[in-house]
Specification:
The complex is a heterodimer of chains A (327) and B (354). With 327 residues, chain A is of the alpha/beta class. Chain A has helices at residues 45-53, 80-86, 98-101, 108-120, 124-137, 143-146, 156-168, 186-203, 214-220, 238-243, 248-255, 321-326; strands at residues 3-14, 17-29, 34-38, 61-70, 73-74, 91-94, 174-178, 206-211, 223-228, 231-237, 305-306, 315-316. In chain A, β9 and β10 (231-237) form a beta hairpin. Chain B has two domains: 6-17 and 28-225, 3-Layer(aba) Sandwich (Rossmann fold); 240-351, no CATH class. Classes of the chains: A alpha/beta (327), B alpha/beta (354). The interface between A and B is large, with 46 and 44 residues.
Chain lengths: 327, 354
């Protein structure tokens, strides 16, 4: 396994108390595999990714326990100096908002070139040539001229291509993409996702795709991990989860998508609101909103049950996964 | 058929681009909306879809009179509201209300929920007499599914979905006939989106509302709309009943847009044809000649650069009376099914009352 996160716990100290953002998350990605982490705002999907990447703000954040094994090495035990060598060269991240992730006062060529001058010790001139090559690779037209331009001179889709180019620069083994296309229009989103998938195939990278969009997930993922209130509530290969979810939250999400044959009818809606992370409900965090909840759900935290069927490895953190799966 | 409640013809909004500080000279214009026609019938929902920069929000602002059109007419019950002012304008505004996209910035953080919703009564005191206002606001909170006791709370004490309910309650306060909703659910989480959509559908029946529903999420627009207009670079390029647009699109832009939407079905990804458009949307300061979509269109020919295609039923479909016979602004319109038929039982809905 390329990356393995084991029982990660992260909390934030806020004025309103301790917000438990990540409560025992475990997942893994192989080389060449795409893992989609699906969740709503506040589910802990981005905090987990930031912790893996080593860019979590500490404080207010605090990693209370867990391991992050990257090719067998526990990243949490590395010194910051060593960690920095991993970041960028071995794993890289693509953010949602390309405009605020790029430096507005440096040309894109300088920013792309920096990857090579800092990590590879190249001269500025060679780095510039590399930058042009990268921009060509992510299909930015007229790369030779545009390398001298500033981020604001590019469109949203082009900026996201530059972000991808920057992440790919050192050919890392793992890419974490946090809502990479959420800010983009659908036609541009399709271009960018295609590019990302193609480069992943070419370089045989592991990809963690963080998103709230069930459509994007279905398009590109191999496996899915669904997060709710800082925990993974269901994990499965992409085909199985859409066909037959094993957790009521996943089922609720899938059913709340407008479908053709339900036009004019009421949409299925999960009742209530996602929990406040400073006051996560006891037992199963989803139980106050769950249509299947029983007494045990309010008291016992469900473990991630092994719900593997045939050969597809699956897990569900629901006491009643059997009923959910077959009901 | 009865007269439409809203009739928009030739609506144009150009923002001038000027140079010089003392002696301003116009050097061009951002053609945000460049000739839009549509109508809205009573009790119906018209969905407007399009990508960012296509002008859909500018249309919304003109409908509620937050922007003055450069040209064109907006007829509300036969009366052109773009020429109104003073008292007459005020009374029309009461009947066309707006729900905004961002529930975080569209509510004043220093006002209580009661003041936010009740403010409308200060401007239109004829709707609710002074002593009656608090009860009215509480009633509205109840209608949108919020606890009436929350009347003294501030916006930050609510979640995004609840705030959007407050925005809707504010829109309803004056008992309008038309609600213009500009991306009302796109800032919300998936599980909360469905709640707000259901609320809007319920309110439409309850208060006999007509909706202009603007969004970029095509599946949500389809769910709530009776008719749909697709906008590109300041114009409507295709319009028709929802099944006509979604199942029988004839404009290449609509086809590309529909094919680009990720479908939440992993089985579909192998046998779906995706049309990936080249390049970006051109700048609205420099709109291509002829058909404005031609720079990204795979069908573009010489004629497209010379002639502006009219929004009408294309000639080849004029004689047939099927779902493909709807308005489409393309010289080479042809039918193409881009969204695979979803479920077996969904097939019956495909034909619709076209």
């Amino acid at each position: 396994m390329l990356l393995e996160v084991r029982d990660l716990h992260v909390e934030f100290h806020t004025r309103d108390g301790v917000a438990r953002a990540v409560n025992g998350v475990s997942y893994g990605v192989d080389a060449g595999e795409t893992l989609a982490v699906l969740g709503e705002s506040g589910s802990g999907k981005s905090v987990t990714a930031q912790t893996v990447m080593g860019i979590l703000d500490v404080p207010p954040g605090r990693i209370t326990s867990g391991e992050i094994l990257f090719e067998g090495r526990d990243l949490l035990k590395l010194k910051e100096e060593e960690r920095r060598k991993v970041r960028g060269a071995e794993m890289a991240m693509i953010f949602q908002d390309a405009l605020s992730s790029l430096n507005p006062v440096l040309t894109v060529g300088d920013q792309l070139g920096e990857m090579f001058t800092v990590h590879r010790g190249m001269s500025r001139k060679d780095a510039r040539a590399k930058a042009v090559e990268l921009m060509d690779r992510v299909r930015i037209p007229a790369a030779k001229e545009r390398v001298r331009q500033y981020p604001h001179q590019f469109s949203g889709g082009m900026r996201q291509r530059i972000m991808i180019a920057m992440a790919m620069a050192l050919e890392p083994k793992l890419i974490i993409a946090d809502e990479p296309t959420t800010a983009l229009d659908v036609t541009v989103q399709a271009q960018v996702m295609d590019l990302l998938a193609e480069l992943q195939r070419e370089l045989h990278m592991g990809l963690i795709l963080i998103t709230h969009d069930l459509g994007v997930v279905a398009d590109v993922a191999d496996r899915i991990a669904v997060m709710y209130a800082g925990r993974i509530v269901e994990t499965a290969p992409v085909h199985d989860i859409y066909k037959n979810p094993a957790h009521p939250y996943t089922r609720g999400l899938l059913e709340s998508i407008p479908r053709l044959d339900q036009k004019g009818q009421e949409l299925y809606a999960i009742k209530g609101l996602p929990p406040n992370l400073t006051r996560i409900p006891p037992g199963c965090a989803f139980h106050p909103r769950c249509p299947m909840a029983q007494d045990v759900c309010a008291t016992d935290v469900p473990p991630l049950y092994d719900v593997t069927e045939s050969d597809a490895e699956r897990g569900s953190a629901c006491h009643f996964w059997r009923e959910c799966l077959h009901g | 058929m009865a007269e439409p409640i809203l009739q928009v013809t030739g609506l144009v909004k150009h923002y001038p681009l000027t140079t010089g500080i003392l002696f301003k000279k116009q050097v061009g214009a951002v053609k945000a909306v460049d000739g839009v026609d549509f109508h809205l019938d009573r009790g119906e929902t018209l969905g407007i879809v399009g990508e960012s920069g296509c002008g859909k929000s500018t249309v919304a602002k003109m409908l509620v009179n937050l922007e003055r059109p450069t040209a064109g007419e907006i007829r509300y019950k036969g009366e052109d509201i773009t020429r109104l002012s003073g008292k007459a304008l005020k009374s029309v505004r009461r009947n066309i209300q707006m729900v905004f996209q961002d529930p975080y910035t569209s509510l004043n953080p220093r006002m209580t929920v009661g003041d936010i919703i009740g403010e409308a009564y200060d401007i239109h005191p004829e709707v609710a007499p002074k002593g009656d206002r608090r009860a009215r606001v509480q009633q509205l909170l109840d209608v949108v599914g919020l606890n009436p006791e929350y009347i003294n709370r501030y916006p930050h004490q609510f979640s995004g979905g609840q705030r959007q309910r407050i925005g809707i309650a504010r829109g309803l306060a004056l008992r309008p006939e038309i609600i213009v909703a500009d991306e009302p659910v796109s800032a919300l989480d998936v599980s909360v989106q469905a709640q707000v959509i259901n609320l809007m559908a319920r309110l439409q029946d309850e208060f006999d509302l007509s909706y202009i529903f603007i969004a970029h999420d095509l599946s949500i627009v389809r769910h709530i709309s009776d008719r749909v207009g697709v906008m590109y670079l300041g114009r409507i390029v295709e319009t028709g009943r929802d099944a006509e647009i979604y199942d029988h699109p004839t404009h290449p832009y609509t086809q590309a847009l529909l094919s680009a939407v990720p479908v939440p079905d992993p089985e579909a990804r192998e046998h779906r044809e995706r049309i990936i458009l080249a390049g970006d949307v051109p700048s609205p300061t420099n709109i291509p000649s002829g058909c404005r979509f031609r720079t990204r269109c795979w069908k573009a020919r010489e004629r497209c650069a010379l002639e502006v295609p009219a929004l009408a039923v294309p000639a080849e479909f004029r004689s047939v009376s099927g779902p493909a016979a709807h308005d489409s602004a393309c010289h080479f319109a042809e039918e193409k099914q881009v969204v695979p038929p979803e479920t077996d039982d969904g097939a019956g809905h495909g034909s619709g009352p076209g």
